[in-house]
Amino acid sequence: MPVAAWVIIGVVVVLAIVLWSLYNGLVRLRNQVKNAWAQIDVQLKRRTDLIPNLVETVKGYMKFERETLEAVTKARNIAVQASSAGAGERAKAEGELSSALSRLLAVVERYPDLKANQNFLALQEELTSTENKISFSRQFYNDSVLRYNNQTQMVPSNVVASMFGFKAGEFFEVTLAAEREAPKVSFTQ
Amino acid sequence: MLTIGMGALLILIGYFLGAAFASAVAGLVIAILIWVILSLVAYFQGDSILLGMSRAKKIKPDDHPRLYNVVEEMKIASGLEKMPDIYIIDDPALNAFATGRDPNKASVAITSGLLQKLNRDELQGVIAHEISHIKNRDVLLMAMCGVLLGTIVLLAWYGSRFLIFGGAGSRRSSSRGGGGQAQIIILIVALVFMILAPIFAQLIYFAISRKREYLADASGALYTRYPEGLASALEKIGASTGQLKSANKATAPMYIVNPFRQKGMKASDLSSTHPPISERIRILRAMAGASFNNYDQAYRQVHGGRGVISTASLTAETVPIATVKLEGEAGELNETQRARETSDVMWRLSNYKTITCDCGAKLRVPPNFKEPQIKCPHCGRTHQV
Q: Which among B64, B66, B67, B73 is the top mutation candidate for probing chain A, defined by the most A β-carbons within 10 Å of its own β-carbon?
């Protein structure tokens, strides 16, 4: 039965190749998710590193904004503690920090001297960019998780995923109410 | 698809030229050999040739923090693994380009003119477009297509010289009486190919280039989640007419807008590397969301006909456009400030030292200035160099 034997060998080889490429595809996506998470981590850490510097620069100019400054420092400390926690708790702490920072940068408008300070301008650029990098890395992370989760749930790769224990990834959602709500637009005439 | 068409064109012209003069196989081999050699040169030397030709200067993170940050933001948003090198071209024309044979060895370059004209959101849009070229491997694709085109033109040119002056065909046909008829047909076909192949190759090349531009716009919108940034930047670029001095034809597809465009160029011009700017702006502004799908819909709405994004990369999802943006917020420089900032960077990159005098004057000290002190020509104060 040489023909039948060859057919069987052929089928086995094709199956092995399919399995192999599906498995590798899943591993690649899972690694991408891991890398994307590491990128968020780097940027969040960068932000907590920038804040003491910012508070120090701003303090001299802002005599009357003690509460705003304290809120930022406090939110930062909570964020630092939450850095080893799960994605959910961490997102909450970082969300609080984001809103405390944006309150601080809003009051800066009242201090023209501060806005002319070169040191402050450089810090502000760094901070703005770090905020952007956080949201872009979150965007890329969530896109990667979506792609990975789709692969683990769709036929035929879901078979391979359950065979080798590829678990679905967790999205990094912003839990801050202000950021989650869509801006209200009214069309009344 | 179009790339394959171009390759087929090359093989055909090689085949028929060879058939007309010597053997078909030899012509084919020569055509492919030329293509391979030129491709290798383009592959290994392309980016340094391009950057050298444009006299671009490489910058470090603290030379221009905003530009560096924006590039890094887009690197993160696109999921590029390595940070591309950043260059500034000292030229008042408004343009930018990307280069590099693979995503891990890429560069983006921007003219000083564009750098001072754009606000942060617009700069982000332009950089997103360039990073998209890198991420989509357009640089490599367009280099290969350019080389294919070059080879076809070269072969056709030499072929026509041979045909006119060489007379190789007539020798063959007289030596073999019976094959005369077939020989003449092959000669005619070769002649037709020599005339038509370069023209078709050129048109295909332009079509590929335009398609990749649309794709880069779409990816740029997806990365920034803010099509308006790129649209507004294109508007500023479209309003200026300065041509880039250092651009050349081979590198044109990598720029954000065609560096050779003239005012009032016909819309949807077949012989252009880039789609008309006004159309690109209209598509970006017609986007209902930031996904490829939204871009494709907007394209069909503005341009009509079939979509421009391949169906494989289309997904059903709609990605919302970011609404909160920086423009006009604290810390954003206005155009005069940006112009000063950019000129400071350009002086520094040429190794000039800048001393700001107490009277407000800025002294630019050239690198070959040897004195330990310098006097301000405006108020007479002396400064240590």
A: B73
| Shortest distance, CA A74 to any CA of chain B (angstroms) | 24
Q: Tell me the three state secondary structure of residue B269.
A: coil
Chain B contacts in chain A segment 103-162 (CB below 8 A) = 105-106, 108-109, 115, 121-122, 124-126, 128-129, 132-133, 136-137, 139-140, 143-144
Helices B180-224, B2-21: crossing angle, 10 deg rounding: 160
Give how far B38 is from chain A: nearest CA, Å.
34
pLDDT score of B87: 92
Residue with tokens 């807008």: B257
Within B225-291, residue ranges assigned H as helices are: 227-239, 277-286
Spatial contact of B204 and B6, defined as CB atoms under 8 Å apart: yes
**Per the CB < 8 Å rule, is A125 touching B69?**
yes
Predicted ipTM?
0.80
Query: Token match 């016909």: residue?
Result: B266
Domain count, chain B: 2
Residue found by looking up tokens 């948003």 in the block = B77
CA–CA distance, B278 with B261 (Å, rounded to integer) = 13
Least confident of A38-52, A95-109, B135-149, B264-278: B264-278
Quick one: what percent of chain B has pLDDT higher than 70? 79
**Which residue segment(s) compose the domain that B59 sits in?**
1-285+318-323
Which residues of chain A have a CB within 8 Å of the CB of B74? Answer: 136
- C-beta atoms surrounding A147 within 10 Å: 15
Instruction: Say yes or no: B125 and B232 in one domain.
Output: yes
Query: Of the candidates B41, B13, B53, which has an alpha carbon nearest to the alpha carbon of residue B244?
Result: B53
In a domain, B300, yes or no: no
For residue A156, cis peptide bond before it (omega within 30 degrees of 0) = yes
Report the candidate in B210, B208, B209, B218 with the shortest Cα–Cα distance to residue B284. Answer: B218
Residue B312 lies in a domain: no
SS3 of chain A: helix, strand, coil, percent, to 5: 80, 0, 20
- Report helix, strand or coil for A86: coil
Q: Which of B184, B182, B158, B189 is nearest to B169 (CA)?
A: B184
Report whether B142 contacts B208 (CB < 8 A). Answer: yes
Q: Token pair of B46, please?
A: 């392309």
Please indicate, yes or no, whether residues B221 and B97 belong to a single structural domain of this protein.
yes
Q: Which structural domains are found in chain A, ordered by start?
A: 2-173 (1.20.1440.20)
